[in-house]
Write a structure and sequence with these properties.
Layout (H helix, E strand, L loop, with lengths): L6 E7 L4 H16 L6 E5 L9 E2 L4 H15 L5 H9 L3 E2 L2 H13 L5 H14 L7 H10 L4 H9 L1 H16 L7 E6 L2 E7 L4 H16 L2
Parallel strand pairs: 1-2
Antiparallel strand pairs: 1-5, 3-4, 5-6
Length: 218
């Protein structure tokens, strides 16, 4: 089946967003199922940037309680290495480095696998406790996609990628997105919110099918 002209799905997330981690398997499955009809683009929202960058210990009391709700509702599990990272407390929460890694990936990957890579970034952090400020984390992930680790690091460190990442943050703010995750179906010059927050797969799929039917009649 051919991709629908001028139609795409925007997955607006943040790498440090626990609810996005819960939603990630759902969006990954949806993107794979609809790959031949509706391409999916990932936008990073910049949830923890500027003055909000801080050691994870500052908000760990709140975060650790929120994780339990995410697990209960979505079925994902936060790994023991991540829980230890939070309890130790010195890790710096900063959305920019992982968002920049996703931006670099989008420039280097010819197969439009950005949803899968965004999923892998969150798996590395929330399941495996990997440091998202460390370029070695992304070099390892890039190898799994048959990308050259050295080239990936050069892109990750480049001023152009830093600037593009900041531009993406600004674009998300201009879209008026209030929280993550948010999914928007873009058809032509119009955007239709599919969900704000977590939705199970079947509900999300049903909503997408309804939007596709509605837009097809316009």
């Amino acid at each position: 089946m051919q991709q629908l002209p001028d139609t795409q799905l925007l997955y607006i997330f943040d790498p440090l967003c626990g609810w996005c981690y819960g939603m990630s398997p759902v969006v990954k499955r949806l993107a794979e199922e609809y790959a031949d009809r509706v391409p999916c683009t990932v936008l990073s929202g910049g949830m923890v940037v500027g003055e909000d960058i801080e050691p994870i210990s500052i908000r760990w009391g709140y975060i650790s309680q929120a994780l339990k709700q995410v697990e209960q509702i979505t079925g994902v599990q936060f790994g023991e290495p991540f829980l230890q990272l939070g309890a130790e407390g010195s890790h710096i929460n900063n959305s920019e480095p992982p968002s920049r890694a996703l931006m670099a990936f989008k420039q280097l990957d010819p197969l439009n696998r950005e949803v899968a890579f965004a999923h892998d970034i969150q798996q590395a952090h929330f399941a495996e406790g990997r440091d998202l400020n460390d370029p070695a984390t992304y070099e390892q992930l890039a190898k799994a996609y048959s990308l050259d680790a050295g080239e990936f690091r050069r892109w990750w460190e480049s001023d152009a990628t830093r600037e593009a990442t900041q531009h993406e943050f600004q674009m998300v703010r201009q879209l008026g997105v209030q929280g993550f995750p948010t999914l928007v179906l873009v058809h032509g010059h119009q955007g239709y919110v599919l969900t704000r927050g977590y939705q199970p797969y079947e509900e999300l799929k049903s909503g997408l099918e309804q939007l596709l039917r509605d837009t097809a009649q316009q």
